[in-house]
Amino acid sequence: MDEEEEFVERATNHELLFSYTEDACATKLLKRIMKCILCECIDQLFILRCITGSSIVHSDDPPSYVSLDERYTGTEDHAETRISSVTSNYDKLAKDIHLIIVVLSDTKSEINMVDTFKVLQESCVALARMQEDEVQLMLDASANEKAVVELTNLLEEERLANIRTIEETQAKIQKLRFEVEDIVVYGRYEKTYFERWELSRNEQNRMICNDKENSYKNTIKQMEDNIELENRCHMELMSYVAESKNDYMEEIQYWMKRYDDELDSRENDLITIKANLEKITEDLEKTRNLYAERTAAIADWLEYKRIKKEKEDREALEIWAATKIQAWWRGVMFRKKLGPYRKKKGKGKGKDKKKGKGKK
């Protein structure tokens, strides 16, 4: 990059150098000096070209401005066409030497003819412009390299993320494959199970229907037997009812006759019972009167016994109370020494004296 910047600076100085007017080479001295310098440079370049020994045929036209697309389109080795490139390829060196020889030769011819150096000036300007394009291209290439590095890192991150996503997706796919296989196997067994279950269910329903049909047939047969039995029973019952009706009519006649006979007998018995009842009623009235008299007598006797008993009880109570009072009074008199239980005076004094002596 330093060499490229130095080359751009030199090209700028050359533009300033060759920006003078055409009168700059008007003097013969300067014209001769320029011719001598150019001839010496051309001789040195011829010698250098002979040393390189390149056999490539180059164009004899002076350099003109060529865009980057025209220079590099279809070129594999860009170092051969770059102006400021450093390479060990001698073909590019020979090409550059030939270019300088052509420019200097045309400049020498122009100075001899018209005393100007427009060819040299235009060639330097063209080379400077191409150099600027190459510098800008290198700067763009550096920026693009950084962008490429960033994009490469981003691409690598995305690639790793995509790899992880692919691995996760493959794991999910594998898991889903196993699940699908399980579902397929489960569905196959489920289908087999349902087919067998349907066969069993149909067979079971067929058996149930046959059982119901047989049950209905048995019921129909049983009902037919019951109807036949019912008809037979009805016939027998009707005959029995007819016979029973006749028997009941005979019994009714018998009981009606017996009722009449018993009614007459009961009426006679009722008359007899009424007569006996009147007699019993009279006896009952007499008995009631006698019972009333006896009851009054018994009541008087009980009242007499009660009064007599109360009197005896009162007399006994009075005797008991008198005896109790007498006993109490005797006890009091005995304790108090009253009445007949009083102590005699003479006997009492002698005893007191004896008691006094004894105490001394």
UniProtKB/TrEMBL annotation:
One of its GO terms (biological process) is cilium organization. It is found in: Cytoplasm, Cytoskeleton, Flagellum axoneme. GO terms for cellular component: cytoplasm; motile cilium. Pfam families: IQ (PF00612). It comes from the Eukaryota. CDD domains: IQCG. Keywords: Cell projection, Cilium, Cytoplasm, Cytoskeleton, Flagellum. Residues 339-360 are annotated as: Disordered. PANTHER family: DYNEIN REGULATORY COMPLEX PROTEIN 9. This is Dynein regulatory complex protein 9. It comes from Callosobruchus maculatus (Southern cowpea weevil). The lineage of its organism: Eukaryota, Metazoa, Ecdysozoa, Arthropoda, Hexapoda.
